[in-house]
Structures are given as C-alpha cells and as structure tokens.
C-alpha cells in the first residue's frame, strides 16, 4: 500500500540503463523506502489503446476518486499537469497525469522511486517541490504535488526577457545551488535543470523563493550509464551530448546556463540540435569576453566535469556575500562557422580539427571563461 492506502505500483518491466543496471543496486540502500511487488494493479497489456492515450481530460473531470480538474498548467510528452481541488480536504494541488503508454508508465514508476528517496529531505529547506503522493486514474499514474505559482521561464518572460537585476538573481542562484547540494546528499542527479523546471512560489514576493521540480529524468548518481541521454537541448552538458561518462556535475553545467539566462533574459547556447549547441559552446570557450564574464560562478561551465564547481562551493562563493558588486550587462554573442564543429564528426581527417576536437576529452581542456566572477 502507498502512504494513503492506495495501490502499490509494480515495476513489472526491467528498465533500461540505470533502470536495469543501477536500480537494483541503488535500491538496496533504500529497500524499506518503496516496495514494488511482483504482481500488481498496473497492467498495460490489458489496455490495447494505452499507447495512444490522448488524455481526454477537461475542466470538471474527476481524477482518481476525489481530485477535480480546475485548470491546465502544462503539458509534455508524458501527459498533462493540472490544477485540481481535492474534495476530501478542499486543498488545491498540482496533479501530473502520466499517459498510459507503457514506456511512460515505466518512467512514472521510476520517478516515484526517486521521489521516495527525496522524502528524506525537507522540501522547503531544500528548495525542492513537495510531493504528496500518487494515485491511479484508470491505467494512468497521477502524481500529487504542492501547487506553486509559475515557472522561472514564465517569470523571465513577464519581464520581457530583459534579465533579472543582481539583487534578484543572487538569491535565486543560491536557492538552486542549495537544492542541488541536498540532491547530492541523497545521491540523486536531477538531469534536466532548466528554467521550465524551476518554480517560483510567489512572484509578488521579493526576493522570490524557488523550488526545483520534475524528477522524471532523475537518476541515482551511482547508477548513471554513459550514453544514456538525459536533459533538454540547450541545457545539457557536453559529456551528455557526446555520450561519455557523466555524473552529478551535469546539473552544475545546467545551473551555469540558467544563471546566464536569468541575467541576460536569453539562453546562452541556443540551437535546435546538439550540433548547433556544440557550435555555440566551442565559440564561447575561445575568448574571455564580457559575454562570459558576467555574473560568474567559478568553473560552473568548465568543460572538464572534474573541474566543475560543486554545490557546496557555490554556496560558499563570495558572489553570495553582502556587498558583492554587480557588473554591467553583457552584449550579444557573436557567431562563428559550423566548420569548427565539423571536426567532431567521426572519421574526419583534418589534423587541426582532430586537435580541436580533443577538447571534448574532459581531462584535456579547461574552460577559459567562468561565470559569476568578480574582479
């Protein structure tokens, strides 16, 4: 039974990557935290149309037994996020409704596994969304979370993408570093840090308080498998894009990109695919300009993950000390030819390109420019 007396979920399929190799090993430390019996209530094969679940949910729909849909907050490949009123206690909550597609069901079960580990953390002190529980709505898995105000992405958009002043930026970064520090304390990699997965509790407060949400791609740090693709284009670390070993340092890379976006109002590494993003990454590693010196947290964007600053070091950084002076906003980024990225293509014979391509070996290259720096 779950904590509210509902049905237990069954991990009936062996998940891929960490889900098959790392989950069993990792769960040994938490064998009393969450129980997955051998046989249970989720049977995706019983619903032949499960993979085509179109989530025909409208305002007024009752999810489970007592959650009435009042509004829609967002959607994605997994399904929908709705604002619901719990008729048992009249509280308003956010419900993540996962589609009944077998792969999405599996991912939802794995997210529950991660959320169970996070129960050991104080959600308010650790700047992590509070997860209440899960329940079933037919073949769908629904996750019940506290209701928050708006995403950081929307918060920036409300400012016409002009970026935030340092007095607002500093506490937000401190809270996010705090969240990553506590995730690390329980061995979890978030793996999809971006403005859309950071929620503002109350946009009218100053300074605003934020919480990290969406652990659908999260995994145990001890069970990461190289080549397992996580994250969102434009925010994931180079080691993820290139399929080489990675760890919790990928979250720090993403935080560095979030920091720049908060300061400037626009993403540092735009692009529709990895190729575009790698182009911008290579470009910004080659000079020490004001574009890459604004609000710098040392080594947050180091290409070598081993040299990347840790959450605990971020929290101790002088940037967060009273009296830290601010810098002038940066100018626009320049652009360069894609030729500098073509050297990464397998089988390329150009000697100079191969030399430049070696920067992607983490031990061979240290990033020249650092975020959040002061003179």
Automatic annotation (TrEMBL):
It comes from the Eukaryota. The keyword ATP-binding applies. ATP binds at residue 96. The keyword Kinase applies. GO terms for molecular function: ATP binding; protein serine/threonine kinase activity; protein tyrosine kinase activity. Pfam families: Pkinase (PF00069). Residues 67-320 form the Protein kinase domain. Belongs to the protein kinase superfamily. This is Protein kinase domain-containing protein.
